[in-house]
Design a protein that fits this description.
Blueprint (H helix, E strand, L loop, with lengths): L17 H9 L9 H13 L8 E8 L2 E8 L4 H11 L6 H13 L4 H6 L3 E3 L9 H6 L3 E3 L10 H7 L4 E8 L2 E9 L9 H63 L4 H29 L7 E3 L1 H18 L3 E6 L6 E3 L1 H18 L5 E8 L4 E7 L7 H4 L17 H11 L3 E7 L3 E9 L9
Parallel strand pairs: 8-10
Antiparallel strand pairs: 1-2, 1-6, 2-3, 4-5, 5-6, 7-9, 10-11, 11-13, 12-13
């Protein structure tokens, strides 16, 4: 006998062991496209849910330079609200994701008086006479505070805000770096904080610190990649613009000298006009690429769009002594995408095929249904093929195999296909030409399988 079991226990079980409940709640984030704020909310949920660690409230502080600043405060505002929340949590079949969504609503509502209370709280991390809650961060220790009103190290403003005599300070540490602090209490149940509670809270603190550190590290990597791309773009544009500008300057100087005859003046002006058009093309391609704003994919008739593009390309094919041979399945289902952007992608691929193929050659275009989920369009040229080392760089910004190419055309095509949830594949062999295959998600309209 074989029984399939879910990775996660989807239902909230009030009687399951707290360690298992904690693991079940936290692992929800592994299966969701959560942001760092959402992941921290998962941790706060694990700390305050009845079958998790079970604290009543969780207060989150984040480090900001040499400051510890108030952020979120998750939990009920009153005993009445606490009882209501606990009744909700006892609903049969309630899932962890529903609890997280409920907590997200608690934090995002306009009347979130809880987080509003701690938002103004700010503590220096560099003062000599540190008070609680900063002491836990400075010492990098979990601190359990009892009889807080009698403890001189507890900051008066903080004590007035939290309003309880017992609370737990959990520093958020990654290696030796402090990410923030979580402060927990049982303001309404009045249950004493037990050693087991402290251990589980410390585990949650380690996970929260890891979320924050990973997110900050990813952001730094994104910024570094962005700056590197901007530097590469600046160098490429400078190189592309310098040559035509130098040419324009040189031939303009000859015209200004006034010594050229009429034929030479006309030649110089034609060269200058050609270089100006080259600059215009550079600016157009850059602007066209940078302003691309992907629209939400919608169903459209791919075969109609493809036939329209092929019809528009026929005059150019005849003028450049190329032949286009197409084979389009007449029963193609609608596909998802932006029809205008997809039409431009198809035109670009066919133009690329023209430029790669010698005069008198044939360009092959086909569109077929791969299976119930995908439709594939292929464009094959009759060129020399693309070497493997070049194929690996085809979708890299500013990489081009053309003498005067910008290296943005294929990257634009990839952006369009990514935006509609499609794919792009390249198949090339020396002397046998190159085939680009675009994969589109189909939207079936009741067509039965054949």
């Amino acid at each position: 006998m074989i029984e399939a079991q879910p990775f996660l226990a989807p239902d909230f079980q009030s009687k399951e062991p707290r360690e298992l409940a904690l693991l079940s709640i936290v692992t929800q984030s592994f299966f969701q496209p959560f942001s760092v704020d959402d992941n921290l909310l998962v941790i706060l949920t694990a700390l305050t849910s009845g079958s998790g660690v079970g604290f009543n409230r969780a207060m989150l502080f984040r480090t900001d330079g040499d400051k510890l600043r108030g952020g979120k405060w998750l939990g009920p505002r009153s005993p009445e609200e606490a009882r209501m929340i606990w009744e909700v949590l006892s609903t049969p079949g309630l899932g962890y994701l529903e609890i997280i969504e409920h907590n997200r609503w608690l934090l995002s509502r306009g009347a979130d008086a809880m987080s509003g209370k701690i938002a103004p709280l700010e503590f220096s991390l560099t003062r000599d006479n540190l008070t609680i809650p900063v002491t836990a961060v400075a010492k990098k220790e979990l601190l359990l505070i009892r009889e807080a009103s009698r403890e001189p190290l507890v900051d008066a403003r903080f004590l007035e805000t939290i309003g309880v005599e017992e609370f737990l300070c959990v520093p958020l540490l990654f290696q030796n770096e402090v990410m923030g602090e979580i402060i927990l209490d049982n303001a309404f149940s009045r249950k004493p904080i037990q050693p087991k509670d402290v251990k589980l809270a410390g585990l949650c603190g380690l996970m929260a610190a890891n979320y924050i550190y990973t997110a900050s590290l990813h952001q730094k990597m994104v910024e570094m990649e962005r700056m590197a791309a901007l530097g590469e773009m600046a160098m490429f544009i400078t190189h592309q613009i310098r040559n035509p500008l130098t040419t324009i300057g040189g031939f303009t100087d000859q015209l200004l000298n006034g010594q050229a005859d009429e034929a030479k003046r006309r030649r110089n002006l034609e060269i200058i006009r050609g270089e100006i058009r080259r600059l215009e093309n550079i600016v157009f391609e850059l602007g066209h690429f940078l302003k691309f704003d992907p629209k939400r994919p919608e169903p459209f008739d791919l075969k109609a769009e493809l036939r329209s593009v092929l019809e528009a390309m026929e005059p150019r094919a005849a003028a450049e002594n190329r032949e286009i041979r197409s084979e389009i399945d007449g029963l193609l289902p609608p596909v998802l995408g932006d029809p205008t952007a997809v039409g431009e992608v198809l035109r670009n691929l066919i133009i690329n095929a023209f430029e790669a193929s010698p005069a008198g050659s044939r360009i092959e275009v086909c569109a077929e249904r791969k299976d119930a989920s995908w439709v594939v369009v292929g464009v094959k040229d009759a060129g020399h093929g693309i070497p493997p080392e070049a194929r690996a760089k085809l979708f890299t910004p500013f990489f081009t195999t053309k003498e005067r190419g910008m290296g943005l055309g294929l990257l634009y095509i990839k952006r369009v296909m990514d935006a509609c949830g499609g794919t792009i594949e390249v198949e090339s062999e020396a002397g046998q030409g190159t085939t680009f295959r675009l994969g589109f998600r189909s939207q079936e309209e009741g067509r039965p399988e054949t």
